[in-house]
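Quick one: co-fold with S-adenosylmethionine.
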Amino acid sequence: MDSAGWDNRYSTKELVWTGRANQFVEQNLADLEPGSAIDLGAGEGRNSVWLAARGWKVTAVDFSQVGLDKALQLAADNGVEITTECADATMYGPDAPVDLVVLSYLQLGQEAQRTILEHATTWLRPGGTLFVIAHDRSNVTDGYGGPPSPEVCYTVEETLNAIKGLDISTSEVAERQVDTPDGVKTALDTLVIATRPL
Ligand SMILES: C[S@@+](CC[C@H](N)C(=O)[O-])C[C@H]1O[C@@H](n2cnc3c(N)ncnc32)[C@H](O)[C@@H]1O
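Sure, here it is.
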């Protein structure tokens, strides 16, 4: 979907996604020393706001200004500040190295995924962390929800191939339990966490 499509999707008063941070973000980043962070494809800002509340200086990047406006509102509602930047993630680059880059369900074609992941590895300070959570390609056939197109899903293998040179601490297909009207269902996510060597 292009930026106009996402603008349209976000043009409801209510949040399209939840205001609560992704569970894997909460589980894996809670103990990280705060510093500077980029939330790439931040959408309505749930992860940006959670990080900002823990002392991170967050730049929320997205090509949907409507999504970013909602992120700023969510930040204000939670009494925190974030910076937003409306940009195409494939063209974006920070002015200075950062301590954390988060990609959370940034749905892009495989070539763009690779480009962005390669770029993101170069934005990290030594010791900085790359955190990737995304719909795994196996979710299309074996999991719940998520996009029906395998093209915009990730795999652990492709993600690792794009971030060569980083030290990998987590690389797995993670199961996420989702409450649905038909009971609890399991969604399958690519989860990769890596750091730039010192
Ligand atoms: C599924 S949403 C996830 C939002 C958020 N990261 C979260 O986890 O709640 C995907 C987001 O990626 C953004 N996006 C998709 N392609 C993009 C691109 N090429 N450049 C910047 N943002 C993009 C969309 O606007 C949308 O906000």
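If it helps, The pocket of S-adenosylmethionine is lined by residues 6, 17, 22, 41-43, 46-47, 62-64, 67, 88-90, 104-108 (CB under 6 Å).
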